[in-house]
C-alpha cells in the first residue's frame, strides 16, 4: 500500500480540508536529528510545531530538552501548562506579557528572554516598573551569525542582532550584569544562511556551488567568532547555555565546542524547503488534504482553497507542493488560490470529484495556522487528533 492509499484509508471518515501528521515519519525524522546532534541536547523550536500536545510528545523522546518559543505570551502559556526551560528567541516589546513574567516567580524561573542592545533592557525595566515584588528576569544575548564578506558589501543570513564581535558581546554582558533584576543565562547565534538554506538547490549546479562555498566560509568564520564571543562573555557571566544552529546545520553546529545545545523544529515535519540538503534526507511527515471540486478540462482539476503561502522572500519556492498523486502542477496564471486552486498534469485525468489531493507546506509550523487540529496517522490508522495552537484558540503571531 502506497502513502496515498494509506492516508486516504486512515482519514476516510474526515472531510477535507484537514491536516495530518505521519507519526512513523516524524519519529524517523526525530531519530535522525538526535543522530546528527551527536550527543548534544536539541532545543525544540515551537514555531515549527505549533501544537502543544505534539511538543509534549517530542520532548518526551530522548535527545530533546527545552523549548525555543517565538513570543513571550506563547512562553507564558506553555509555562502555565508545565513546560520548562523556555527560551524566547525573538525580542519582545509586549508590556503586559513582561509584567506578567516579572510578577510570576515560577514562570520567571523557566523563561529566558532575548536581547541584543541596552535599549531592550531599558524597555523591560519600564514595562515591569510597577511590579512589586519583581522576579529576576533571565536574559539571553542574541549574536549575529550572518556571513559578511567583501568589506561588508556581501551578506548572507537573517538580519537579526547588531552584536557581532567579542567586544560588543562582552560590553552588553557587562551591562546586563550591572543591572539589578536581570541575570545573564545564555547566548544564541542562529546561522540561517546554513541552517535554512539548502546546499542542493533546484536552481542548478552553478548556484549550488556558490551556496556551498558561502556556507563553508561562513562555518569557518563562525567556529572562530562564536568561540571568541563565548570566551569573552564567560569572563563576565557563568553561562547556562550557548544555543546555535537549526535543522539544516545540526551536524555542523554540534561540532563547535563553544555550543552547548542545538535548535531544531522544521526537521520533525520535513517541509518542502528541506528537500534540498545533501547532508540529510527526511521523510515528509506533515501534509494537508484538499478536495477536488471541479474538472475544468481532461487534464485539469480544481481543489478547494490552497493559498497557504509560506513567509519569506516571495517566489515559487513559497508555494505548497502538490504531493500526492505525483505529477500535478499549478496553473501558471493562478498558482495557489484563496478559495480554489487549479492543478494540471496527467495525474489530474485519474482524479474525480470528491477525491483528495495531498499537499506539503513549504515551511513547517505555518501550516498549523490554517488548521485547528493535526490528525495523527500511524500506518493506515488514524490514532488520535490533537489541537494546534489555533485549535486551542491561540494565535500568537
What would you say this structure looks like, in words?
- With 397 residues, the chain is an alpha/beta fold.
- It has two domains: 23-269, Alanine racemase (TIM Barrel, Alpha-Beta Barrel); 286-392, D-serine dehydratase-like domain (Lyase, Ornithine Decarboxylase, Chain A, domain 1).
- Helix content is 30%, strand content 25%.
- The protein has helices at 3-10, 23-37, 52-59, 72-80, 95-102, 105-110, 118-127, 166-178, 192-195, 205-234, 250-253, 266-269; strands at 18-22, 42-45, 64-69, 86-88, 111-115, 137-143, 147-149, 154-156, 182-189, 241-244, 261-264, 286-297, 300-304, 321-324, 329-330, 340-344, 356-360, 373-378, 381-387.
- Helix 4 (72-80) links the parallel strand 3 (64-69) and strand 4 (86-88).
- Helix 8 (166-178) packs across helix 10 (205-234).
- The relative contact order is 0.17.
- The mean pLDDT is 96.
Whole-number count of domains: 2
For the record, what is the CATH homologous superfamily label of the largest domain?
Answer: Alanine racemase
- Per CATH, the class of the largest domain reads Alpha Beta
Assign the CATH architecture of the largest domain.
Answer: Alpha-Beta Barrel
Portion of residues within helices: 25-40%
| Strand-residue proportion | 15-25%
Task: Note the gap between the termini.
Answer: 39 Å
Amino acid at each position: 500500500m502506497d502513502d496515498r492509499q494509506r492516508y486516504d484509508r486512515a482519514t476516510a471518515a474526515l472531510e477535507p480540508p484537514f491536516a495530518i501528521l505521519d507519526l512513523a515519519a516524524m519519529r524517523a525524522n526525530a531519530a535522525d536529528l538526535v543522530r546528527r546532534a551527536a550527543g548534544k541536547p536539541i532545543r525544540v523550536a515551537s514555531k515549527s510545531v505549533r501544537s502543544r500536545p505534539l511538543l509534549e510528545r517530542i520532548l518526551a523522546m530522548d535527545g530533546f530538552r527545552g523549548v525555543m518559543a517565538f513570543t513571550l505570551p506563547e512562553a507564558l502559556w506553555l509555562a502555565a501548562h508545565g513546560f520548562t526551560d523556555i527560551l524566547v528567541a525573538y525580542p519582545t516589546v509586549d508590556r503586559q506579557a513582561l509584567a506578567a513574567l516579572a510578577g510570576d516567580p515560577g514562570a520567571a524561573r523557566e523563561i529566558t528572554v532575548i536581547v541584543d542592545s541596552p535599549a531592550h533592557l531599558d524597555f523591560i525595566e519600564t514595562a515591569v516598573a510597577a511590579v512589586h515584588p519583581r522576579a529576576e528576569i533571565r536574559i539571553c544575548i542574541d549574536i549575529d551569525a550572518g556571513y559578511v564578506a567583501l568589506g561588508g558589501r556581501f551578506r548572507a543570513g537573517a538580519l537579526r542582532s547588531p552584536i557581532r564581535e567579542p567586544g560588543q558581546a562582552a560590553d552588553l554582558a557587562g551591562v546586563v550584569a550591572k543591572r539589578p533584576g536581570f541575570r545573564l543565562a545564555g547566548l544564541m547565534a542562529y546561522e540561517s544562511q546554513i541552517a535554512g538554506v539548502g546546499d542542493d538547490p533546484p536552481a542548478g549546479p552553478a548556484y549550488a556551488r556558490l551556496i556551498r562555498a558561502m556556507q563553508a566560509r561562513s562555518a569557518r568564520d563562525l567556529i572562530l567568532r562564536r568561540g571568541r564571543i563565548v570566551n569573552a562573555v564567560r569572563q563576565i557571566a557563568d553561562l547556562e547555555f550557548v544555543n546555535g544552529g537549526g535543522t539544516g546545520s545540526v551536524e555542523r553546529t554540534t561540532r563547535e565546542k563553544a555550543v552547548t545545545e542545538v535548535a531544531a523544529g522544521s526537521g520533525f515535519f520535513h517541509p518542502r524547503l528541506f528537500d534540498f540538503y545533501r547532508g540529510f534526507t527526511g521523510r515528509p511527515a506533515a501534509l494537508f488534504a484538499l478536495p477536488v471540486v471541479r474538472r475544468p478540462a481532461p487534464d485539469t482539476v480544481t481543489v478547494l482553497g490552497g493559498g497557504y503561502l509560506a513567509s519569506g522572500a516571495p517566489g515559487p519556492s513559497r508555494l505548497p507542493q502538490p504531493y500526492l498523486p505525483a505529477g500535478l502542477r499549478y496553473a501558471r496564471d493562478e498558482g495557489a488560490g484563496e478559495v480554489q486552486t487549479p492543478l494540471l498534469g496527467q495525474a489530474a485525468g485519474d482524479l474525480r470529484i470528491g477525491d483528495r489531493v495531498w499537499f506539503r507546506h513549504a515551511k513547517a509550523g505555518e501550516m498549523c495556522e490554517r488548521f485547528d487540529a493535526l490528525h495523527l496517522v500511524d500506518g493506515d490508522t488514524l490514532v488520535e487528533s490533537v489541537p494546534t495552537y489555533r485549535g486551542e484558540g491561540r494565535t500568537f503571531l
